Amino acid sequence: MPKVPFTFRGLIVPVFSPFNNDSTRSLNLSIIPQYANYLASKKVTGILVNGTTGEGPSLSLTERKMVAEAWANAVKTTKQHLMIQVGGAPLPDVLELAKHAESIKADSILCLPELYFKPSTSTQLAEYLKLVGSAAPNTPLLYYHIPMFTNVNVHMGQFLESLGETIPTFVGIKFTSANLEEGAQALNAHNKKYVIFLGNDQLINAACALGMDSVIATGINMLPELVFEIFNEMKAGNLLKAKEKQQQLTKAVMVISQHGNWVETMKVAMPLLTNINVGPTRAPLKVLPPQVRTVMAKDLQILGFQVKL
């Protein structure tokens, strides 16, 4: 068993990093307490900082610490679980971010694989994560499996089966993939020893049907009620209702994401569907032209969502 307890199950929201609309896209940390309170008001009890949605790899080491600290302060009030993504940087920086996350009392750490000298086997991946775990020996560690971004294709079922007790703090994975057969193998590894967070907005009901009980999905930012409805209907065994709600969410995600990169489009949708303005994206992502917002707003209204024009 891991040395550190990890009892969180349910929904975690990967939060956007808020930027000012200036030439450097400087951080707008002042909005984070309002952002945390908004999510808490929607009964969202978990936060993921500096992930893909949060443009973590586009932030400097100092900025990543600043964002993490701002959320650590905010969750003192809201009592949300704080997960910090520390990967996507040179290994010395990853280790420093892991130490920092532990120093600010993050509840858990999520880590991408090495992105240049990529692991190609379970053993190589375990060795990398062991280094990260050693840098934060008192904080639960999860691996971030997102092969469409990382091109690291280690099979998660086989990886978890092979792990043994090599990383004392290791508790699970964020599984951002449409391969639910692999996801099911990961879930059942070592008699369901590890928590598997699905990272796909469009497969929540399907993953719940397989037995997954935890989700990290961007849509929770904009449409928290809808995501909760899918999740809760599945837990209650109301499969048809859950399917109907999942179709609503999938249609919303599709009309949003058709306009560009996932984060580019989701950042446009956020102020259309909520009172939180997280600002523009930062290079290398693009800021989408104003007409995208107009089309997106119209498409969301046609689907029956209330938008802020």
What would your notes on this structure say?
The chain is α/β, with parallel strands linked by helices and 309 residues long. It is 46% helix and 11% strand. The chain is built from 13 helices and eight strands. It has helices at 32-41, 61-78, 91-103, 122-135, 147-150, 156-162, 180-188, 204-210, 219-222, 224-235, 239-257, 262-273, 290-302, and strands at residues 11-14, 46-49, 81-85, 108-111, 141-145, 170-175, 195-198, 214-216. It has an eight-stranded parallel barrel with strand order 1-2-3-4-5-6-7-8, surrounded by five helices. Strand 3, helix 3 and strand 4 form a beta-alpha-beta unit. The longest helix has 19 residues, at 239-257. The protein is globular, with a radius of gyration of 18 Å. The N and C termini lie far apart (51 Å).
Characteristics of this structure?
309 residues; alpha/beta; 8-stranded parallel β-barrel; 13 helices; 11% strand
Set down the secondary structure blueprint.
Blueprint: E1 11-14, H1 32-41, E2 46-49, H2 61-78, E3 81-85, H3 91-103, E4 108-111, H4 122-135, E5 141-145, H5 147-150, H6 156-162, E6 170-175, H7 180-188, E7 195-198, H8 204-210, E8 214-216, H9 219-222, H10 224-235, H11 239-257, H12 262-273, H13 290-302
Parallel strand pairs: 1-2, 1-8, 2-3, 3-4, 4-5, 5-6, 6-7, 7-8
